[in-house]
Amino acid sequence: QVQVAESGGGLVQAGGSLRISCGVSGGTGSIYAMAWFRQGPGKERESVAAISWNYGRTYYADSVKGRFTISKNNAESTANLTMNSLKPEDTAVYFCAAAPFVEERLSSRASYIYWGQGTQVTVSS
Length: 125
Fold this sequence. Notes:
This protein is mainly β. It is built from no helices and 11 strands. The chain has strands at 3-7, 10-13, 18-25, 33-39, 46-52, 58-60, 68-73, 78-83, 92-99, 114-115, 119-124. Strands 2, 4, 5, 6, 9, 10 and 11 form a 7-stranded mixed sheet that branches. A 4-stranded antiparallel sheet has the order 1-3-8-7, with no helix packed on it. The termini are far apart.
């Protein structure tokens, strides 16, 4: 019954910033971690950032490290991704996902079983 929904996608010029949000409902008590993934045209879905719900441990892909920041608000049951210094290669559909447990890494896609529909982020050059 866990539901995940993203919001905040849009068009931004290269070098600009954008914040996208993820809301979780229907059983946040069973969530161990939340993560952002993205999938660009002709590319596989890749992990972007992740955060453990209770401890705040984070993971960042090398391609976004230093530019993106993942944060959470337990009271609001949300996870945000702040994206700075955006590049055209960041253009993708961004998906939020939640995992009831993580046995390997926070970035392990197999651990995430609850997914949102995705939000489009387009970075113009």
